[in-house]
Design a protein that fits this description.
mainly alpha, 14 helices, flat
């Protein structure tokens, strides 16, 4: 009997060792697969960057930093399109496009950040429990709507509203030598962008606030702080890394948006002039991403193709910088909280 029991125990031990070895082999295969996929993804990103940079290299070689410091992109593009093959036009300045990108993005953030953060606070801390799930579903649905839909809404509602309520004949005549006031403007782009990125900020802020340990809130309330002071002094500081990440992600979405802005912002590379007063916000503008979309029909001209790829390089560098900034902010916040 003892011999039989020993044999059973030996068999069970061998079977367990085989299962452990098989599990270890599977784990190693999975780890190797993940490493291979990560390496492939990194190589694809590097290839994309090098490909775009190669196609735009002649523009940077001729213009240098002048590409982002000089203006006149629209006229230069027209000159390049009609230039002869013997004397191609390689001089381009995308300052107007860069200013248009920055103004629309900053304007959208000024609207979207307080709206997004305030809505996230309402969803997580102030709304009844039965309403939270519904509101989160609505927010995530809004974040998944294609940009072309926002562009259509802006074109059919926002642009006519601006034209009918903020533009008159006297203004159109006064500024006719600078640009046409048609409702397609930086203001329309700002409004559309803010509507687009607010759900992203809300969704990530909600996740960040929900990730704050409940004991933080309970301890604060136990010490006598009101609910609102607990939100402001305890919950939001504890969730700031996730909130900042959401803002940076929304900023990246705004900078890279092309379709919606090409429909509502005017499509002209003007530099808004604060000396124009309130008309500053009604100036038609063109962003880097929208320029690639709007001017793509002229890419049969090599110089224009290179110029549009140069706009892509600037966008790619900006997006990469934002991604790195997100990681840096996360590291700084963790160090400030004493987390290694």
């Amino acid at each position: 009997m003892d011999i039989v029991n020993n044999q059973k125990m030996l068999t069970a031990s061998r079977s367990e060792k085989n299962r452990v070895r098989l599990s270890q082999v599977r784990d190693r295969i999975c780890e190797a697969g993940v490493l291979v996929l990560t390496a492939i993804s990194a190589l694809i990103i590097v290839f994309i960057f090098l490909f775009i940079l190669n196609r735009a290299w002649e523009i940077f070689k001729v213009n240098g930093l002048g590409f982002i410091l000089n203006k006149g992109f629209d006229q230069q593009l027209s000159n390049a399109y009609y230039a002869s093959a013997e004397s191609p036009q390689w001089i381009f300045g995308a300052l107007g496009l860069l200013i248009g990108t920055l103004t629309t993005t900053l304007g959208a953030l000024i609207i979207a950040i307080p709206m997004g953060l305030g809505t996230a606070i309402v969803i997580t801390e102030l709304a009844p429990s039965w309403m939270k799930t519904f509101l989160q579903s609505v927010v995530r649905l809004l974040a998944s709507i294609p940009s072309i839909v926002f562009g259509l809404l802006g074109l059919m509602i926002i642009v006519p509203f601006i034209l009918n309520n903020f533009v008159n004949v006297d203004m159109q005549i006064k500024y006719i030598n600078f640009f046409q006031l048609t409702g397609h403007s930086m203001l329309a782009g700002v409004i559309v962008l803010s509507i687009m990125i607010t759900p992203i900020i809300i969704a990530l802020s909600v996740d960040a606030i929900n990730a704050v340990p409940k004991k933080f809130k309970e301890a604060s309330l136990a010490l006598g702080l009101s609910h609102w002071r607990t939100i402001v002094k305890v919950i939001l500081p504890a969730a700031k890394s996730g909130i900042i990440a959401g803002i940076i992600l929304g900023t990246g979405r705004a900078i890279g948006e092309a379709i919606a802005l090409s429909m509502v912002s005017g499509g002209v590379g003007n530099i808004p002039n604060p000396a124009h007063g309130p008309v500053f916000f009604l100036t038609p503008v063109l962003t880097l991403a929208s320029a690639i979309v709007n001017k793509s029909e002229a890419m049969s001209t090599p110089t224009i193709e290179a110029a549009l790829f140069a706009c892509g390089v600037v966008l790619l560098i900006t997006s990469t910088t934002l991604s790195l900034l997100t990681k840096i902010v996360e590291i700084i916040v963790k160090r400030g909280e004493g987390i290694e």
